[in-house]
Amino acid sequence: MIEARVIAVAADDSHAFSKPLRPSIRLLAGRGVEGDAHCGETVQHRSRVAVDPSAPNLRQIHLIPAELFDDPLVRPFALAPGDLGENVTTTGLDLLALPRGTRLRLGATAVIEVTSLRNPCAQIDAFRPGLHAAVLGRAADGGLIRKAGVMAIVRVGGEVAAGDEIVVEPPPQPWAKLERV
């Protein structure tokens, strides 16, 4: 059985698309990743700030499964951790299948709560032309599948580093499917 683990962490204080890898990151309860451009109690993504700067930040931390990099449609783009702007790259965990409200314990103390799917935007094509289509798919019913990871809020702060174990704590049932926020 594969254990869920953190394989890389990243943060950047600018609104650049990709984030440089770090030895560790510090999560701040109710805010996000210390020193990251998206850290804050209210929305920090530029498009969201333009609509309502007082809205709560439900996108404090971005996680992507490393397994995405092996997807046959994504593999030709030669992605590495941090390339898509994620703060945490995971392995051994189907992030996209988690119900909304799932809590993930990262490392010794940090706890985050999954809020939504990441909605990949056109900036992905500016980074690597054609990548936007590769991180989207269609379900059997025709519905859109967003494969670019999940967003979460920080419930309990702490240090997170590559190699840290991830413990999954599902919310009470009935479970709500992840949607974009």
Describe the structure.
- The chain has 181 residues and is mainly beta.
- The chain has one domain (5-169): Beta Barrel (M1 Pyruvate Kinase, Domain 3), CATH 2.40.33.
- It contains three helices and 13 strands, in the order E-E-E-E-H-E-E-E-E-H-H-E-E-E-E-E.
- The chain has helices spanning 46-51, 123-127, 131-134, and strands at 5-10, 21-22, 24-28, 32-33, 61-65, 88-91, 103-106, 110-117, 136-138, 144-146, 150-156, 158-161, 166-169.
- The strands form three sheets. It has an eight-stranded mixed β-sheet with strand order 2-1-6-5-11-8-7-13, with no helix packed on it. The chain has a three-stranded antiparallel β-sheet with strand order 4-3-12, with no helix packed on it. A two-stranded antiparallel sheet has the order 9-10.
- A hairpin with a 3-residue loop joins strand 7 and strand 8.
- The chain is globular.
